[in-house]
Amino acid sequence: MKQESAINARRLLHCAGLSLLAGLAGNAQATEGGGSTYPMGAENYLSGAVPPPGFYAQFYIGHYEADSLRGNDGKKLPVDFRVRANSIAPRLIWVTEQQVLGGSLAFHAIVPLVDLKVEVNDQSQSKQGLGDIIFGPALGYHLSEKLHTLVALDFLAPSGDYDRHDLANIGRNYWGIQPVFALSYIDPAGLNIDAKIMYDFNLENPATDYRSGQELHVDYALGWGLGNGWVVGVGGYAYRQTTDDRQNGERIEDNKGRSFAVGPSVKYTSDKGWFLTAKWEQETAVRNRAEGDAYWMKLTIPF
C-alpha cells in the first residue's frame, strides 16, 4: 500500500515545480501533477487598478509548504509527503498613453525564480531556477475615483526546467491561455474590495500526451482602510477545476481539483507612490491537491 501510494504521489508531483507559483499536487493528478500554471492566491489589494501611464516594477515573494495530499473525497492520502517552495518573481508593467476601447493599454511580464524541494516516502529531490513565464496585454478602466477594473489576456509559457521522470519540476511543459477580469474598490479610509477572476485553458504536454482540464479561480481581498496608508483585512483564493483531464485523448474522471484559502492580509501605501501588500493564507476544502499554507508579499515601485 505504501509503495503504491508513493507511485501515485510521484505521478501527482512530477509537475509540481511551479509549486508556490502554481498551487501543487493532487490525487490521480487533478490537472497534470496536481498543479496549475498560475500561482493561486498571489494577488492581493489593488489587483484591478491599473496605475497611470509609465513603467512599474513589482516583486512577488512567496513561501509555500504542504505535508498533506487530499483525495477526491477530501481525506488525507496515506503518503509520507512534504513540499517546500520559495520564490521571487519580478514583474515589469508598462502602462502606455494609448487608449483602446476606452481603456488604458498596458503590458506586463512575470519571470519567476523558484527553489523547490519535494519529499515522498524515502524519495527526495530539489530544483532551483527559472519557472514558467507569464506575459500579456491588459486594458484598465477607472469607472470612478474609487472603482477600477481591468480586462487582460495572459499567456503562460513553458520556460521552466522539466523532465517527465523527475519528482520535482519547476516548469509544466505546456502553454496556457488565461482571460482575466479584475475589480478594485479603493477607499483609503473605508471599505476595500478586490477580486481577480481568471479562467485557464491548458494546452497539451507533448512529453506525456496529457491535457489538464480547464480551471476557474479567483484571488480576493477584503479590508478596511485606516486613513493612514494602511488597509487591514483578509485575503486568499477560491479554485475549481471545471473540466476533466485527458490523456491520449481519453477523459479521466473523478479527479477534478478544488480548494479554498483564507488568511489575514494587509496593505501599506506610502506617500512616495510605492506600496506593499502581505498575507498568509491557509488552504481548506481541498480535493485532489496538496493542502498547505502560503505566505505572500508584493512590492510595487514606480520608475
TrEMBL record:
The keyword Signal applies. Residues 1-30 form the signal peptide. It holds the Pfam family Phenol_MetA_deg. Keywords: Signal. InterPro entries: FApF. It comes from the Bacteria. This is Phenol degradation protein meta.
